[in-house]
Amino acid sequence: MEDLRKRLLKAEERIAYLGQIKEGIEWGNLPSLQETLQELRDAFYEHSQENLAERIGTLEESLAFLENRCEESLSSMERVRIVRSPLRFSLKDILENVYEEYTELGGEEDANIDPALVAARASISRRVKNRTIMQQVMVIGHEKGHGEEYRNGGSTKPWGNEKALRYMRVAETEGIPIHFYIFTPGAFPVEEYPGAAQQIARNLYVMAKLRVPMIAVTSEGGSGGAEAVGMGDMRLMFSHGYYSVISPEGAAAIEGKIREGAKLPKDLLENCAERLLITAEDNLRLGTIDRIIPEPLLGARRDDFSFFRQIKAEMIRATDEVVLKTKSLRAFRAYELKLEKAARAAGAGGDEEPRIDVSWELADDEIRRLLQFRSRKYRGMATQAYREHLSPYAAFYRRTGKGLAKLYYTFRYDILKSRHKQVKKVMQDVSGEGSVLIKQVTAPFSAAYDFIARKPNGRSARISTLWGSVGEDQVEYGELYTSSLANEDRTVSCPNAEKHGCKDLWVPDLYGEFCGVCENCGHHFPLEYQWYLRHLFEPDSIREFNADLASLNPLNFPGIDKKLEAARAKTGRPCAMITFDARVLGVDIVVAMLYSDFRNGTVGAAEGEKFVRACELARIKRRPLLSYVHTTGGIRIHEGTLGVIQMPKCTMAVREYIDSGGLYIVVYDNNSYAGPVASFLGCSPYQFAIRSSRIGFAGPRVIRDTTGEDVPPDYHSARSALQRGHIQGIWDRRDFRRNLHKSLMTMGGGNLYYR
Fold it and tell me: Are 691 and 718 in contact (CB under 8 A)?
């Protein structure tokens, strides 16, 4: 009878689980099964054992039929509910069932730096012939728990991601692989140090060149929170998991323009989940993951022990594959043949795990190849999600030009660099000794020039500049851009008028000679991106490149094609990023600019590709790289994970550029939020903000929905970001050019060409 009672309890759990997936007990014949279950429970001891066993067996058969029917028609939103079920397995279940032993680091349970993220030193075993081989790994991942409130549902706080980074470095020091497990709906959106966005950016920056194999497995992957521990050499995903740019609820609120606190329509929620292509099959097809780990019917649960054996085999196999690729293709092919042989043996009733011994220790040349493979992997992601119209001739011309540029700049700055420094030193010595003679010869001519150029008041003529002086010869640049806002013949009030007593400002002056800045309190009114193009850089120095890269609608999201067309018509540009060569007070630089007019400066595959190419060009030409962020609203949700993957892809490009000796400067303006700040912008060692700009990971509404608390009005202000250490300084718009030039001349490595 005890066995029958356990079967009845299991049937009750299965009915409740189906009800969770279908969001109600009314689906199919679940109501009648629920009544049958209740009847058997109430009259459990009134039935004979044979009758009870027969009726429970019939109930189990009916449940199995329903489960199969549910599996065949699972929607994307139902997969989300499977992942969020408290019955689903968690990271601690994996640690206890996949690894032989483990030691949790950074605290345990609720006595932890951040219980939503677990780091553990673990060992995993494999059988080779008649012996067991133990291999050491670092396991890092999110822990949702099974109802424990202190786990925060796997939503990691900034200090949890900092803990993850710390133990990534430990694994690198010890030379052991890292196994990442992603179980998070998203990062916890708080700006307190080390900051949600900034810490994710730091993690990505370090992972880009971490010198050990990394395997990442996703169960629930919510945007930037997933990427904080997701930049793997091999990216796996559980078959019933989801990986998304945003939660379905968040996407529905944006798409439906739902008021805060209002209930989301169920149809809208289901449609958004489907359109975002968040399932494992979707992501495999898009190329954002490498392989799917199959799960049992309706997803694995914490007591599916055969599934844990499968995870173990998959993690060993994935780590082997990453390691063997660094050794030789021949070794990798031999391993694949052994895998095929083992699979055939498993099909014939043999052992399912290949008994192969692969050392996970890497030599220096193997580490170098590992980093090369990782770079190529992320460089090749999402290349199908943008459009570039190039004729065969133009493509050939571009490739040839790039190759010649590499040869030229390598010869000029790598080969001749040491010689150049020696010659420069000699010239300095010679010029120093000859300066007295030169001064005596040129003195009469200098005196004559000063007399001719003298003004009536006795002072030498100097051409004033809007930007302040950098040197005596600085002049105002060409014909300056006047904001179209200056055409409005009216006055506006400064937002700080009540606090600082600012007078009303006449619009033509405000957006003309005042540069959009209140003279009394320094408040910066927003200006168009064209203003910066004309005021910041020397005239006729801007040379745009990759201007034909265009944003697409790779997920075929309804209505987005028309919105993209409208953005192109409005701006005359194909995407939200402009990349160009320019010059600032004699210094040549490469610039990547995100601007607000095109879809609020959001980043998708086209913008990511343009940014990566800008990094590559700056590296080839040995020029500083400036990211000027006029505005960015984050990752473009309509490109799904093809947008999310731009976070590691672009950060990889930045890391390679900085490692080559480049100077990377980021300047924020207006509003800068979410994915770009949490990746390729936030990883810069030199980040500045124009006064009155706002910087953060998530907007006030998202923070309120997530934390249940309101944030103060200045929570995302540049001053608060500076106080937290997220940026390195605040610039006045009127001093932008002068401050940028000073940074170019004083920051970065000594091997920058213009030094």
Answer: yes
How close are the terminal C-alpha atoms of the chain, in Å? 85
Residue 227 near residue 255, CB atoms below 8 Å: no
Residues 98, 10 within the same domain: no
SS3 content of the chain, % helix, strand, coil (to 5): 50, 15, 35
* In a domain? residue 190: yes
Same domain for 101 and 23, yes or no, is: no
Q: What total number of domains does the chain contain?
A: 3
Contact, 336 vs 318, CB < 8 A? no
Q: How many residues does the chain have?
A: 755
Tell me which H or E stretch contains 180: strand 178-184
- The CATH number of the domain where 334 resides is what? 3.90.226.10
Q: Residue 338: inside a domain, yes or no? A: yes
pLDDT tens per residue, range 18-36? 999 998 888 888 889 988 8
Dist. CA 436–CA 438, nearest whole Å? 6
pTM to 2 decimal places = 0.88
- Token pair listed for 561: 């094609």
The predicted pLDDT at position 108 comes to 86
Query: What is each CA distance from 159 to 196, 198, 255, in whole angstroms?
Result: 8, 11, 32
Return the C-alpha torsion angle 389, 395, 399, 400, nearest 10: -140
Boundaries of domain holding 167: 83-378
Beta bridge partners of 593: 578, 628
Q: With a cut of 50, which residues of the chain have pLDDT below it?
A: 348-351, 449, 452-478
Whether residues 637 and 718 fall in one domain = yes
Nearest alpha carbon to residue 728 among 690, 686, 694: 686
The Cα–Cα gap between 26 and 270 comes to 18
**Domain match, 97 and 179 both:** yes
Q: What are phi and psi of 694, to 5 degrees?
A: -125, 135
Question: 557 in helix, strand or coil?
Answer: coil
Judge whether 695 and 727 are in contact, CB under 8 Å: yes
